[in-house]
Amino acid sequence: MLQLQNINVYYGESHILREVSFTIEAGQVACLMGRNGVGKTTTLKAIMGLLPVRSGQIALNGMDITNEATDRRARKGLAYVPQGREIIPHLTVRENLQLGFWARATKGDSATEKTAFDEVYRLFPKLTQILERPGGVLSGGEQQQLAIGRAILSDPKVLLLDEPTEGIQPSVVDQIEDVIIGFKNSRRFAILLVEQGLHFAARLADAYVIMAKGAVVAAGKTSELSAEEVKRHLVV
Question: What CATH number is given to the structural domain containing 65?
Answer without folding.
Answer: 3.40.50.300
